[in-house]
TrEMBL record:
Taxonomy, superkingdom: Bacteria
Keyword Hydrolase part of the UniProt annotation: no
Keywords assigned by UniProt, alphabetized: DNA-binding, Transcription, Transcription regulation
Stored InterPro entries: HTH_LacI (IPR000843), LacI/GalR-like_sensor (IPR046335), Lambda_DNA-bd_dom_sf (IPR010982), Peripla_BP_I (IPR028082)
Taxon lineage: Bacteria, Bacillati, Bacillota, Clostridia, Peptostreptococcales
One MF annotation (Gene Ontology) recorded for this entry: DNA-binding transcription factor activity
UniProt-recorded name of the protein: LacI family transcriptional regulator
Organism the protein comes from: Peptostreptococcus porci
Length: 342
């Protein structure tokens, strides 16, 4: 098979009977061209399948139309939903995104920043749970707009999109209490960012206290956010316990689904014997059976708002508040039921 050489701007100009600069004007919409000439050039571009060289185009327009996105883990459903929002809005404004996956490693995060700058991105959205002074200082000195999508700002003066963690956890705990649950076990995740885990524990404790329920550290456990960790921790909490929780609140949907399977493997029905609630509202929360009752974070909207903030900053528009906290909702599905006194 003979590989055909790609069409160049010179080929388009020759076929359209115009100069290379005229073709460039049509592509970049940089200077006036008659409608007749413009249409002739566009017809040739369509016919030949010519694709403009983005590097050459950026030299003319002084714009790369690229925005970098740094994610902690591409396979994580949380990051994937945020990326969907970023991609949707970037298309609306004719931007392409370059994604750097860091596997939650700080060294790779810092390398990704340099890589994206070398690619001439005009701004960066960074999804990061562990914000520290080194990262903030590096991003402040790269000379382009940066917006974080992070659950906590760490008291840094940064542009950030998130939700309120303590109020969300408090509301879900109150929801479970309202369903008649008095002994509510908490499996808190996000251990890699203690600030988030502590905020969520605070909301849980406040709800218990306001409802006259004593805090019991024996039914509060910590683990990572994965399915396997949720399964193992729930099994440990429930196995052989006479005074077991009548509800489990797990602050990660994936870990909550693991907890549901642990309940079933120990002979408990969800939600008849034990109710289980999660946090995030990932896509699997609606697919799994029983459908997971959870705190819904507007993940798509978080990505959409973050990329829009970056684009506004690139264009010199007013962004408004630096810290944007989007509303959350309690999604009442199938994994939580009314507590029946026995």
């Amino acid at each position: 098979m003979v590989t055909k050489k790609p069409t160049t701007i010179k080929d388009v100009a020759r076929k359209a009977g115009v100069s290379i600069s005229t073709v460039s004007r049509v592509i970049n919409d940089s200077k006036p061209v008659t409608n007749e000439v413009k249409q002739k050039v566009l017809d040739v571009i369509k016919e030949t399948g010519y694709v403009p060289n983005p590097l050459a185009r950026s030299l003319v327009t002084k714009r790369s139309q690229l925005i970098g996105v740094i994610v902690p883990e591409l396979t994580d459903t949380f990051s994937a939903d945020i990326l969907n929002g970023i991609e949707e809005v970037s298309k609306m404004y004719s931007y392409d995104i370059l994604i750097a996956n860091t596997y939650s490693e700080r060294e790779l995060e810092l390398k990704s920043i340099n890589l994206l700058r070398a690619k001439q991105v005009e701004g960066i959205v960074i999804i990061s749970w562990d914000i520290d002074e080194e990262l903030v200082n590096v991003l402040e000195n790269i000379g382009i707009p940066v917006v974080f999508v992070s659950k906590m700002t760490g008291n840094f003066d940064i542009y950030n999109v998130s939700i309120k963690n303590a109020p969300a956890t408090k509301e879900m705990t109150n929801f479970l209490i309202g369903k008649g649950h008095k002994r509510i076990g908490l499996i808190r995740t996000n251990l890699n960012v203690p600030e988030i885990a502590d905020e969520r524990l605070k909301g849980y404790k406040e709800a218990l206290e306001e409802n006259g329920i004593k805090y019991d550290e024996k039914i509060v456990k910590s683990c990572n956010s994965s399915y396997d960790d949720g399964y193992a921790t729930a099994k440990l909490m429930l196995k052989g316990k006479k005074n077991k929780p009548d509800a489990l609140f797990v602050t990660s949907d994936e870990a909550a689904i693991g907890a549901i399977n642990a309940c079933f493997d120990l002979g408990y029905n969800v939600p008849d014997d034990i109710s289980v609630a999660g946090f995030n509202d990932i896509k699997f929360a609606k697919i799994y059976r029983p459908k997971l009752t959870t705190v819904s974070q507007p993940l798509f909207d978080m990505g959409a708002v973050a990329i829009r903030m970056v684009i506004k900053m690139i264009n010199g528009e007013d962004v408004g508040d630096k810290i944007v906290e989007l509303p959350y909702r309690i999604m009442d599905r199938e994994s939580v039921s009314e507590r029946k006194e026995k």
